[in-house]
UniProtKB/TrEMBL annotation:
Residues 82-338 form the Glycosyl transferase family domain. It catalyses: N-(5-phospho-beta-D-ribosyl)anthranilate + diphosphate = 5-phospho-alpha-D-ribose 1-diphosphate + anthranilate. Its EC number is 2.4.2.18. It comes from the Archaea. GO terms for cellular component: cytosol. Belongs to the anthranilate phosphoribosyltransferase family. This is Anthranilate phosphoribosyltransferase. GO terms for biological process: L-tryptophan biosynthetic process. 5-phospho-alpha-D-ribose 1-diphosphate binds at residues 88, 96, 98-101, 116-124, 128. One of its GO terms (molecular function) is anthranilate phosphoribosyltransferase activity. Anthranilate binds at G88.
Amino acid sequence: MDDKLRAFGKNIDLLINKNNLSREESREMFRQILMNEQPDLQQGAFLAAITAKGATPQEIAGGWEVIFDLDTVKVSPKISVPVVENCGTGMDSFKTFNISTAASIIAAADGVPMAKHGARAITSKCGTIDLLESIGIDVECDASIVKKSIEDANIGMFNGMSSKVHPCALGRILSQIRFGTILNIAASLANPASPTIGVRGVYNEEMIMPTLETMKEIGFKKAMVFHGKNSNGKCGMDEISTSGLTFVAEMKSDGTITEYTIDPSSLDIRCDNENDILASERSNESIRFLRLLEGKESRDREDIVCLNAAAILYVSDHVKDIESGFERAKSIVASGRAASKIKEWVSIQNSKPDLGLEKLDALLCHC
C-alpha cells in the first residue's frame, strides 16, 4: 500500500512541476480515485495539481475512459439519426439559470434526439437534475427508462450522481468538490448513450480546445465547445452569451477544427438586464423555466436559451448557421412545441407518470 501511495504522490509531483501524464497514466490515477484506493488528501491534491497545470486532451481522455468503462451503465437508443448531447460543465463564475436544459428541450421539439447527462447543484443554486425533478421528471429512474425516453420523446436525462447510472463512486467524488477540475469535463463526457454529436460550455476559456480535442479523441464526429463572457468581460459562463463575446471551437464532420467568436450584436441580439439571466431560488426557477417554454418569460431569458438552442440545431444540421437556428428556436417556442415537449418528456421518463404529470400541472397553474 505504501508503494502505491508513493507512486501516486510521485505523479502529483510531476504535475506540480508542469509535466504531462500519458492517457494510460491518467487512467490509472483516476481508477485509484474512483475505487477510493487513495486517501482523500491525495485525491484532492491530484485534481488540484492537474487543474493548475492545465489538463491535456490525453489526460482528460484517461479520466473519461475509466469512468465510462468501470462506472457507467451503457444503453443504445434505437433511433435512426445520431444521438446529440449538450451540457455546461458548471463551476463557472457567472451563475446563470438552467439555459442548456431549456435549449435541449427546444432542440428535441425540432426532432433532435437529446441524451442529456447532468448533476445536482454543486456550486450553483439549482442544478439541472434538481430543476427537472421539481417539474416532474423521474431523475432517479433506471438508465433503461431514460433510453426509452430518448427513443419516444426525443430527450432523456441521465443523472450523473445516481448509482443507477454510475454505480461505483462518481457521485461520491462530485459531491466533495467545489472547484472546477478536469473531472467536470471527463465525468460529463461519460454519457451512457454514447452520443457522437456534442455541444458543451466550459468553465473557462483555456478549457475550450482541450475539451474539443478530447471529444475528438474519444469518438465524437461533430462538436462545438464554448465559453461566454458577461458584459464587462470579467465573469464567464458555460453558455453562449447574449451580453458579451463567446469564444468557440468547432469540429466539423471531416475532423477539422476552427476557432471563432460569437458577438450577439452581430446577430441583432442584446441583453438589457444581465441580472435577469442569473439563477434565483429553486422554487422560483421551476416556474420561470416553464414560463419560458410557454413563451411567457422575459426577452432576455428567452433570447439566451434560443441562442444556445441554435448551436444544437446548427451542429445537428437542422439549420445552416447560428442566425437561422436562433430564428428557428424562437418559432418553436412561439408555436407551443417546446411547452408540449416538456409534458411529453414528463409522461415518458417516469416510473410513475401520473405523479410526475400531477407535479408538472401544479406548477403550470402558477404560470
